[in-house]
Each structure stands twice: as structure tokens, then as C-alpha cells.
Amino acid sequence: MSTTTRPRPARRPAAVFVAGLLTLTAAACGTSGPGSSGKAGDATMWALQTGDQPVLAGAIKEWNEQHPDARIKVNFFSSDAYKPKIRTAVGAKQAPTLIYSWGGGVLKSYVDAGAVADLSGYQKKYPRLFERYLPSTLKNNQFGGKTYALPFNKVNPVFLYYNKSVFADAGVQPPKTWDDLLKLVPVIKKKGIAPLALGGQSKWPSLMYLEYLVDRIGGSDVFQRVLDGKPGAWSDPAVIKATTMIQQLVKAGGFADSFASTPSDSGSELALMYTGKAAMVLQLSSQYQMMKETAPDFINSGELGWVPFPTVEGGTGDPRYLVGTPANSFAVSSDATDAQRNTVMDFLADKVLDKEYSKSMIDSGGVPPTVGVGDSLKDSDDKDFLGFTYNLVQKAPTFQLSWDQSLSPGLADTLLSNLERVFLLQMTPSQFSAAMDKTL
Q1: Residue 241 zone, left/alpha/beta (φ > 0; ψ -120 to 50; rest)
Q2: DSSP tally for the chain: helices H, then strands E
């Protein structure tokens, strides 16, 4: 899941703000990489169009005003556009100074290629920078005892959003178990409403179902065997049962008819839910921030509900387990000059996740990946949602980075392509497992 964090629908206020920011930084370094700066300390940044975009853009604007000789030029991309662009840039040694990262396998591929800098040596210079993070948010950025990226935005677990009005009209309650979910399908469909919205065209939203079901059924060791490259790991009974359950849901009409052609970047799947055309959507917590901007009336009405992913009867996995993005991070290009590295490290230490930055994130509907923020969430207008998210993360024994980011880029692409065929009923569960086993 490109976690991520992940794509967002277009938002006019943020777009105007960022357009102004880019104009202000036009004299700074170009967009092609760290070597194209105008002044020695000027640096570049690529990031995603997420709910945190205004928060990050505001911090950069303030930094640039205070540091005219060490400005940061930022470009924001949709998730689907960013992934191939950054891979190409890294391979051509034209990466920006600060590289937006999900951590995990993709970051590891950059580490192995020598494309990103080891940041461990900065711990003595910026002790508070390293000490403020929740341990789980740093884990996916560390390899061989070294740190290669630092979190800068919210924790981003996946759970079910639902439209309370749709549920009330159908006389049903949100699902606690997978069987509950299946029983809801025909009841909601009778109302002419899709039970679940899904941005299937973007592929990564479909992966969240597989991630949760495999763990609910067989526990976290199943995917760990995949990460370890164990032969036959994809043929584990938990994987086959999970894909079988997915196809059962598809055949029952659990998803909107247009799920295969619905993009996630445009926010279409969210719109189906908050306009009452779909009852539920499985998505990242970051989607709340998006809806605060795209559907404020729906948020303010109190009609949005949220629950953890359902449990599976007879499963051995811990129901407190989470998938998603512990937090997105910034890696520093190894091709950056010393002056550029100093600029971005000073920026991360001084402006990112400081008190004002964290408050802005909380105000936008996000939970910072830092220790001791629980009390701050209680003062927010979104305290119910933020408290729910924070409690999920605090209680989770495992917060698994989305599989498409945990695996290498090539293997992730194969996984998403094969899983798409499972959802389209073009590949059986056994065929899926056999195809994936060939990648080990």
C-alpha cells in the first residue's frame, strides 16, 4: 500500500497554497536532483499529495523565509505517479535531496544500491530528533543497526470506515467478524447500495484485504516466511484461505460494480462511501484528513464511523495486529553535497514534528509518530477519531508495513498484478500461490 503516506483527492486550498510555495522557491534548486541547486545549501524534496501536504508545505515555507541561503524546493506527486518517477530518478542518480519513503523493501533496495545516506552519525548532533519517535515508526527505516530514513508524518493504520446513515437505514451494525461482513452484503445490496467501495484500479488498496486476512488466519509468521524467502511460503494454508475468502466476497457482490476501474488517487472510493453509494471502505487513517477537506459536511455531521478490521473465527492471528504505514519518512540522497545534507537535517531537526508542526498535524486529523502526544489529541475537535487511531497503534503488538513496501519493488509489482487477477476472478487461489512461489 503505498503507504502510505498514500494518495489523496485534489484539494483546492492545499493546491493553491503549494502553488504559491513553489513560486516562492523558484530560485532554489531544480526538480531534477540534488546537484541542480542555485546556492550551495539549496536542496530539493519530493513528497506525496496527502493530508499532510499543507502541514509539510507550511513548514517548508517558514524554513525558506528564515534561511534564504539554504532553501528547499518541494514538488508534490500523486502516489501512482511518484513510484515510477522516484525509481527512475534514483537509478539515474537524479534523486532529490530528500526522498519520500515508505521504508521497508523499497528503502532497502536504495540502501543496497548505495543511493541513500546512513543517518546514524547524526544522532549525536540531533539527539532529540532521534529520541522523539515511537519505536515502531523507526523500525522500518533501519537495516543492519543503521538508520536510513526519519519519519515526518502521521501514523497510518488501516481500518474500516462506514457510513452510519446507510447502516441505520439498513438496520445493521458494523461488522466485528468476517462472517458478520458476509452477512451484511445481501442486506445492504437490497438497498441498492454497494457494501464496499474499492479503488481497484490503483491495485494497492486491494492488498489490504490480503494482508489482514492472512494474519487473522495464520498469524504474522506467515508473511515473515515470505520475507525470509522460504520456499513455498506463498502456498501456506493461510494465504490460500485468505484469497479464497476474498473471492467469496467478490462473488457475493461485496464490492461496487466499478471497483476494477475505480482509482484511489482521485478519491473516488471515498466519495462512494460518504455520498451513500457504498456502505464501507477499507482504507488508511490518512483518508480522514482527506475527507475533512473534500467532505467537511459529512465529517461534521457525525455520520462517519470506523471500526477495526474484522476478526476471523478459528484464526490464530492477534486481532490487535495492524497493517498500513507506521509513518512515512525522508531518506537523504547519497549524491547530496555536505551543504545540502546540512540543510535538510537542520530542517528535519528544527521544523519537522516540533510543537507547532505536530499541532498542525493533529488539527488536520492526523496522529504524530512521536511519544507523549496522547494528551494533545484530547483537545482536538477530532478527538474521537484520533483517540481511536492512537489506541490502535499503542495496543498493536505488530504494525506491519504494507507488503508492497516491505518487499522489493519488482516483487511488489508481481504481487499486486497477481492479486488483481484474484479479485477479477481470473486466477484461482492455488494459481496465485503457485505464481508467487516462483518469485522466492
Answers
A1: alpha
A2: 21, 13
